[in-house]
Fold this protein.
Amino acid sequence: MEQILQNLAIGIGVALQPINLMWVTLGGVLGTIIGMLPGIGPASGVALLLPLTFKMGPVGALITMAGVYYGAMYGGSRSSILINTPGDGAAIAACWDGYPLATKKKRPEAALAISAIASFLGGMIATIFMVLLSAPLAKLAIKFGPAQYLMLYLFALSATASMSGEGKVLKGFVSMFLGLMIATVGIDALSGVHRFTFGLMELQGGIDFLIAIIGIYALGEVFESLKEIGKGKTKIQKKFGRIWITREDWRRIWPGILRSTPLGFVIGVLPGTGATMASIMAYNQEKNLSKNKEEFGEGAVEGLAAPEAANNAASVGALIPMMTLGVPGSGTTAIMLGALMMLGLQPGPLLFERTPQIAWGVIASMFVGNLVLAVVNIPLAGVLVRILSIPERILYPLILGLAFLGTYSISNMTFDFFIVIAFGLLGLFMKRTGFPTSPMVLGAIVGGAIEEKFRQALTISNGSYAVFVSDPITIVLAILTVGSFLLPIIQRRKKAAGGMAGA
Amino acid sequence: MVLTLQVIADLFYLVLAIAYGIGALNLPEAMFGDPWEPRIYPLIIAAGMAILAVVLLITELRRQQKTGSAERAQFKIAKEGQIVAFVVGASVLYTLLFDRLGFMISTFLFIESIMLFISKGKKMLWPTVIALIFAVGIYFSFSRLLGITLPPAPFLDF
Amino acid sequence: MTRFSKTIAAACLLLSCAGAAFAQKAPANYPNKPMEFVAPSGAGGGWDTTIRMVAKALADEKIVSVPMPVTNRTGGGGGINLAYMQTKKGADDLISVYSPPLLFIKLNGTSKFGYKDTTPLARLIADYGAFYVSKNSKYKTMKEVLDAIKANPGSVKIGGGSAAGSMDHIVFLYVAKAYGIKDLRKIQYIAFQDGTGPTQLMGGFIDVLSSDIASLRGLVESGDVRCLGITASQRIGTGIVATYPTMKEQGIDVEFSNWRGLFGPPEMPEYAVNYWRDALAKMVKTETWKKIMAEQSWTPAYMDQPEFKAFLDKVNEEYTEIFEEIGILVK
């Protein structure tokens, strides 16, 4: 403990140097802005800084890049809440309750404040975890082989699909299978076979789930809103209040924030999972534990706070395997790792020993950075909320423009525009026929990994399926998966029984 | 059986699952390890989806029988159809012109056309100005500040 | 068509003809506008690092004065960018970095284009394959690993960061082939494309990890993993890397270089080719470049265009042979 405090003191000394204060503010603000633009997420933001890192030096570079990473988590949900288009994958869960809260319930100020507060608390608490637990957690990352990952993904999937609401569970699973199908497009990494690419080189790398999300949400929102204009309805809001929350809101959100922060953090630590999965899982957990499930999807404050805390916590957790093992936890940390190596720094278990001023400087800077972001974000929200006062005839064409711009900056290929359009239409069709889209999105995110992990695990075990229940981690996850199937059924039974008794 | 929108959707997923399953069966053999390996997982997905689609279809048909009510799907090109058709059409055109005309010109035309459609051609001064600022502003801020290269306009040297 | 749009169309046509006519003539002060430097993979990877370092060295040493922003055009194992280069035939402002996968993607059928559809400029550096085991592994030498495979091909699980039939996989097969292992297809290779290979190795889920020299340096230094050997012909680098034994030291007569070089689009104009050959020849002699090489544990392997072309023809034959042997050659 004493050692930790000593190190932290070194780190704070580094983080409070004026130049580093400047970098963390710059990184955080840049991340917020980049996070808001659909499609341009933390990975592009960090990549953008690469040429500058040579001038910043390792400490400055890492502090700025980390700032962009968690700053993007603050920014991404702004567009989810205001225009129902996630700024990046991790902000998708903020659409589900954040947008209804802002538009249906006409409380955009509260929605933006909740997301900022939850992000801040998630980031701060996760940084404390990182100070105390980074060494043991790095060991947890090693315990996760293909079988463990597979069970984790299966749990996340079945929990999302079975959360689809009364009478929609089957549809939720159809939607999930559709997502899994989408994920099989491209070159199969384990055998090199081209699957469902129709001979198109553009499909060999698969369909980027971010592009699918842009199609479903941005185009979906435009279709939906333009229809309303025709009916003479208007959603625009002219007067705005203070960006803050009520005591009642706070009472409802704090337990969820405290629950989803550790969850998001652990998911973040596991290499290859990332903030998107963390926020979706946190949303499921909160919906599952909530007493008023019906309110979820209609603007429940808990449903916005939980994933917001989780994705910030995950972005902090993802730095652990990168710094202590030299293994990327996500696409963004992969680029940060590359940057470290370009600067001649060697991430690994000895990074903390050899260059404590760098490792601890970055950690300390995250406390500072989250404070700065909270201070910047509340007034910023006061400006952003006015997006809702832009007339639809101007706003929605611009959203379409941003959607395609974001798509292009992901892949530099206009071919992907067709994918956006196709997913826009698919999303509309699913909505009209009552199929939820979120299981499909999660399926598309983890589908590729599920198959890969399944086959990797079987290759490693020489074909024995026992590998999927071989250790405590897999067994616990297997029980949770089965439980998530059964829970809705049990609840329905209970309800039915209760109804009988009442009658 | 009445062809409700619900039935159409269920049939769509059933057909999709079958087509996908056939596609999976016809995949080339793997060059390493078990030649069947790349097909197994797609086949599981296809089977799972097909079964669920059939269950949904049966449930829907039984509901129709029971209640006797079934709203036939209506293929009227209503307001929504028009909007979707226009947005999709404009987007496809935008995609085709994007590389040829460069980001600025194609984006301006795209946004302007959607604005014209929504506003029905009235009060177009402000929207036009905003579309212009968006196209030019994004182009320069992205290529100069963010280092994300967007297709340049032909014959203009910047 | 209105008269106005007709005029515009005519003007465009005229301008494009004019453009084509002048295309071959060298602009007086080439290069006079920003170059497009391309890494055909994501930011932070080997290709990306190489081209960014080239851009940095050229700028720092003031050899090239125009901006050289790096674009990451990812996908298809480099094939997407290769296809893009075909649309830029004759352009003088596009340069990409490539390495053996440029040849692999044609051989394994990922791309219909190959190295012949580019203008090679120069080979710059070499990296090498390296094989790692975890600290408690029973394998102490590469020979032990290969003997175990010889006895029972399924008993050793080889992991790598690239897809089956690409870099990390082929390097291992190259070594196995040199050792006299016949049934290369039976060797169990598991691709971890999400970069988790090192944790899988430390967790004991795989036996051997095939990777490059720099990525696992931190874990070797801390003693969590051991390097069993590298595919260079002699020891390289400084510090801990210099302790990595070569294959030849262990009696396995093989060398595999993961060379990296720069390529222009097909039919790149001669003035541009000459300019960049000259610039790169100057660059490799600078102190900045030498310092970068040392930091990244890269081996200098500069080769000017004519030799580089001959080299590409030679290695293409070698690769074809091994692809044929594994049975993944697409003719």
In short: Residues 141 and 270 of chain A are 5 Å apart (CA to CA). The mean pLDDT of chain A is 88.
